[in-house]
Design brief:
Distance between the termini: 47 Å
Structural class: alpha+beta
Number of domains: 2
CATH topology of the largest domain: Heat Shock Protein 90
Number of strands: 8
Oligomer: single chain
Strand content: 5-15%
Radius of gyration: 18 Å
Helix content: 25-40%
Length: 270
Amino acid sequence: MESFLDRLLAQPAGGAATAGAAPGETGEHAAPLPRGPAAPRIAVYDTLTSPPRVISVEEGDLPALIASLAEKTYHHCREQGGQVPYTVIGELIENLIHACFRDVVITILDGGQVIRISDHGPGVSDAERAFLPGFTTATAEQRTFIKGVGSGLPIARESLSFLRGVISVEQNLGGGAVFTINLPHGAAAPVAAPPAQPEVKLTNRQKKVLVLLMELGSAGPSALARELGVAPATAFRDLGLLEEKRLIYSLGDGKRALTEDGIDLLDSIL
């Protein structure tokens, strides 16, 4: 029987656009995704006077594609010196399910402070409503992959506002949408509670992630998802939250390891 993912990738670029979404709690799906020239690409501009470095992202299932795109975009953004939060990148990439991941190009500019995410999906008919909580066009089938409650874009905009950054959306050439994240240089990171203190609130699953990282030394979302029995999208969301609390850090290859604060917190919990 044809799966939702098969239909998602085969449908024309019509229909409504989402107001935002967050990852769901489902397991992996093995239906094929776009590969080769059709696969999502990341274009990294070291300078505007030279061609970009282009990275093609190919995965075997939708949750893995979302996680991989978010991981690689965040890594190359940080590599350029950018300060765009991981959760902001993740929310916008998850939103691409409404464009069926059609002709996705993620462009990193201005030292990682500007990220453009473009597609040739249905576009966004009402940009103002798209950033309001509760407005969504997610279908019942799409909610098996994402929450689809209209929270993704509002969360991304609010998170970025603390860094004096903005998100805008405009029509893409030939149809579709272009979301642009623009963060000013020198933006200070938001103040968070001291991560090494026992009062830092973590879910039981996030505590298990810390324990697994202590046992394994380092791991990526796919490995942690297998160990925890959750979807890769769930694992990468937990990793993003733990990284924002500075309990873990990226090794640059998609894997994470405990920081000293993370080790101290884990010692206090255990």
